[in-house]
Amino acid sequence: PAIAGIASFCPYNIGPAKCFPSTFYKKLNAGDRIGACAEIRRWIFDGGRDCRIKANNCAGQPVRRGQESELTCWDIVQ
Description:
Layout: H1 2-14, H2 16-19, H3 23-29, H4 33-40, E1 45-46, E2 49-50, H5 60-72, H6 74-77
Helix pairs in contact: 1-5, 3-4, 4-5
């Protein structure tokens, strides 16, 4: 499950250009998977719009980030 969470978030949803220089990627490579999982949940903006606000029409993004974070840390927090 962890690899699925990372693959969904990094190359697929945000893309390599944003993923590789991110704090998420740095923490993941440093072995801080719990910190990396927390970073995933911070990616809730789309084009400057806060996706926690339903009127911004991107409300699925925070839900998806939560799912990706849970998958990434599946074997740590179980």
